[in-house]
Amino acid sequence: MERKRMDCPALPTGWKKEEVIRKSGLSAGKSDVYYYSPSGKKFRSKPQLSRYLGNTVDLGCFDFRTGKMMPSKLQKNKQRLRNEHLSQSKGKPDLNTALPIRQTASIFKQPVTKVTNHPSNKVKSDPQRAIEQPRQLFWEKRLQGLTASDVTEQIIRTMELPKGLQGVGPGNTDETLLSAIASALHTSSAPITGQLSAAVEKNPAVWLNVTQPLCKAFMVTDEDIR
Amino acid sequence: MERKRMDCPALPTGWKKEEVIRKSGLSAGKSDVYYYSPSGKKFRSKPQLSRYLGNTVDLGCFDFRTGKMMPSKLQKNKQRLRNEHLSQSKGKPDLNTALPIRQTASIFKQPVTKVTNHPSNKVKSDPQRAIEQPRQLFWEKRLQGLTASDVTEQIIRTMELPKGLQGVGPGNTDETLLSAIASALHTSSAPITGQLSAAVEKNPAVWLNVTQPLCKAFMVTDEDIR
DNA sequence: CGGAGTGTAACT
DNA sequence: AGTTACACTCCG
Description:
The structure is a homodimer. Chain A is of the alpha+beta class. Helix content of chain A is 45%, strand content 9%. Chain A has nine helices and six strands; from the N terminus they run ββββαββαααααααα. In chain A, helix 4 crosses helix 6, helix 5 packs antiparallel against helix 6 and helix 6 packs across helix 9 (211-225). Chains A and B meet through loops of A and loops of B. Chain A binds a DNA duplex through helix 1. Chains A, B: Its main location: nucleus.
């Protein structure tokens, strides 16, 4: 496994995993695991991977070192929110490790997509990636090797969000918008639009109200990209 | 400090230190530190500096980036012999990055500082390759993961065993022996056997007791090598 | 300036 | 003690 990039079944198609043995120094003999996205970007840690993949992929039970899913890891996800409720309202949003989902209104599982859209955080993000990231994130999600069922899941999840938010007060508007934008970006690539249509047909009632905002968001984003 | 060559108190007279800030790219804002010998030769890293200065200057606690001596670094010395940690029987002899001579010196209480304060050493004579070359052989041996280095390590390790068997003494004896070996290796410019002899002649009183074991150990190793 | 390779603080 | 995650070094 040393020094050879190999496919990783637990990640979307095109991703590679590599294990490199340290050959000198204090830590000689230990190994480092790297992942490569389809585009060739190198990932050196799980948090980095999470950051890149965003909320669309739950890495909670993904073992970075082995490259496999470990259900046993599920129990370890916790402790992010508890600091919040102990202290004040502020506190930095946890952009790290785990699932962004819980951050927002606990009732409505809100993806943290917006975090992805704000690389201006302390992380050493580069300007360009900011735009690119959101997109890739979704492609991968759809192309994920976990077969069609995943795709379906994803779409449904996205749709659920707007639906739930509709009935809620203004406070959640931002989040709704963000979701819309994310979806728009998602579809902006090309054939995706078609997919959405299909989705709408499946659940017209759900998408009906939200459609307009979605389009708007998309237009803007598209221009910005260009 | 940027872009300006300044004196470096931790190095011999005539040496200059320069810090250049990176102005673009992923690492924008970071800086690169360079040193210049009195003759103008540029040094871009600590290993390069060590190679050039040789064993006479202990850079173990020299912080390349700041240009200052950091005693705190002393404990942080790392070593190349990682397999050793499995055997717990003895305290680890510290033959690491820092030149072996240091260890010997510690026994005889020889501060490196004075060497530093005497630029009249080999330092000021940059042009002369004659001195520089012979030394490089050693540096490479000890400091690099090259074959030569491995050989050296093996010799040292091999010697530890015989010594223990002889039952010369506890604790310090080990280190003394190792130091002796290290010194011998260190000072030699040719075959190791010759080195040992030279060391003994230089300090008969000091080396007397240890000499025999050393020779034995070495002989064995030599055979093994062949 | 980039980035593979290594060091090491912070966690578990 | 062992692992993780990422800062840093060194050299191309």
